[in-house]
Design a protein that fits this description.
The complex is a heterotrimer of chains A (about 210), B (about 130) and C (about 110). Chain A is mainly alpha-helical and about 210 residues long. Chain A is built from five helices and two strands, in the order αααββαα. The longest helix of chain C is centred in the middle third of the chain and has 17 residues, at about 55-70. The chains are: A mainly alpha (about 210), B alpha+beta (about 130), C alpha/beta (about 110).
Chain lengths: ~210, ~130, ~110
């Protein structure tokens, strides 16, 4: 603390500059704290959605695996895998971005994941309806997982930015602003001191002059 | 001083997510890919379900007037936890979302209400940090 | 923009998602092979989403975590349970919440 203060010349100019710096730092701190508060709101909003989305997606995925077990039992494991190789693999996910206060977060959307049996591409003659069932359940699961992916990625991005912002706010509140205020106080004290010394010196001179006269 | 530089950098970044130019609800509804470009060039997409919700609660005559994204202004002068909505159409729309009467050019809302608005309109609203 | 979806998993997971129409499935055999494939997927400009099962992600260990930390915005990587429904005991997201907003909030969330 003293080291910083000693490096600064105790002048009125410096006092003014320091006051401005304190004001800027204070304003910056308040703004960043607003950002931090807002990020917390965003974070909890995403988490709330994630809870629900996860439960739904995992349940559906489990159903999908069950449906495929049924299919393998009916059609045979090898035949099921063969059919999967024949299936058309043209699924696409539409990815764009959205902004949350300084961070870019992906948005994911799948167009109509659920196809009908013909569109899937495997031969209908050699496969059973249980295959259609399994495919449908996996298509549903995929749709839910895509939504979940967006939410989890958002949560991570927001958490990172929140941690960064928190560190800035703390650095300002516990390091920079107290340091600036201490330097400010030091200069004010020194200026007062110098003024008092000057004042008493002038008094002495006056007394000397009056005595000599 | 290092922290000073970091501070200046962070403050300059505060509103970087905001678009150069906003678009009206009407424009967004008519567009196949409703989006705006942020100051740094990256794209911000509006979700269709939010646009549809706004179309329902805002009378059609106002669709050309409502500017997106709706700005939620955070000004430390308002006190921690308070936010401001400006613009007659915007005030009415947000008022509708919150189930209260929004009249006039300005509306002050508080943290739990901000959370509700952000929850319902995550891409069609944005925070705006008032530098002052 | 449109992107592809790929899956890294065991043979059942791969079969299932192939039926759902994902562009490419990779069946995990060993750590090195899978890491190489994952690296390839992450570097690809065409792939937007990678699904990896939890057991495999765990086996890939620190290297997987490093890749997640250093990768760009895309592709998004999501960990999913396999047929057994296995989810690791340590929930990464839960830990993230605790680290970010403090244990106190987590306790309140559990109660509420």
């Amino acid at each position: 603390m003293a080291a910083v203060a000693a490096a600064v010349a105790p002048t009125r100019m410096e006092l003014l500059r320091l006051k401005q710096r304190v004001s800027l730092a204070q304003r910056g701190h308040d703004l960043l704290r607003e950002k931090m508060d807002a990020l917390v709101i965003e974070f909890f909003e995403v988490l709330r959605s994630i809870g629900k989305a996860r439960a739904g997606a995992l349940k559906q995925l489990s159903l999908a695996h069950q449906a495929m077990s049924v299919c393998s039992a009916v059609m045979g494991t090898i035949e099921t895998r063969q059919a999967s190789r024949e299936a058309k693999r043209e699924l696409e996910v539409e990815i764009s971005t959205r902004h949350v206060m300084g961070i870019v977060v992906p948005t994911l959307e799948v167009e109509r994941v659920e196809r009908d049996a013909l569109a899937r591409g495997y031969s209908l003659h050699t496969t059973s309806s249980t295959l259609d069932e399994a495919s449908k359940e996996f298509e549903k699961a995929l749709g839910l997982l895509v939504k979940l992916a967006e939410l989890e990625e958002s949560a991570r991005a927001i958490a990172r930015e929140l941690e960064r912002t928190k560190r800035r706010v703390n650095a300002l509140e516990y390091i920079l602003i107290p340091r600036l205020k201490a330097a400010l106080k030091f200069i004010e004290m020194r200026l007062d001191e110098m003024e008092r010394e000057n004042f008493s010196r002038l008094k002495r001179i006056k007394a000397m002059l009056e005595a000599g006269a | 001083m290092n922290v000073d530089r970091v501070l200046k950098f962070e403050l300059s970044r505060l509103n970087v997510h905001l678009p150069e130019r906003r678009i009206s609800l009407k424009e967004a509804l008519e567009s196949a890919k409703p989006q705006v470009a942020a100051r740094d060039g990256s794209i911000h997409t509006f979700k269709q379900e939010e646009l549809d919700l706004l179309a329902k609660i805002v009378p059609e005559v106002d669709w050309g007037r409502l500017q997106l994204p709706i700005l939620i202004a955070l000004d430390p002068k308002l006190g921690r936890g308070a936010a401001r909505i400006t613009g007659e159409t915007e005030v009415r729309a947000i008022g509708q979302i919150l189930g209260k009467k929004g009249k006039g050019e300005e509306l002050l809302i508080y943290r739990p209400e901000v959370a509700i608005v952000r929850g319902k309109l995550p891409t069609t609203t944005q925070y705006f940090f008032v530098p002052g | 923009m449109s992107y592809k979806v790929v899956v890294i998993g065991d043979v059942d997971t791969a079969t299932g998602f192939a039926l759902a129409g994902v562009s490419y499935t990779y069946v995990h055999v060993d750590k090195d092979g899978t890491l190489a494939k994952l690296t390839e997927f992450i570097a690809s400009e065409e792939i937007g989403l990678v699904l990896v099962t939890h057991p495999i992600a765990e086996e890939l260990g620190a290297e997987f975590r490093r890749m997640m930390r250093t990768k760009k915005l895309l592709p998004v990587v999501l960990r999913i349970p396999d047929k057994t429904g296995y989810i690791p005991k340590v929930d990464e997201l839960y830990e993230l919440i605790k680290r970010t907003v403090g244990a106190e909030i987590v306790v309140r969330a559990e109660e509420g």
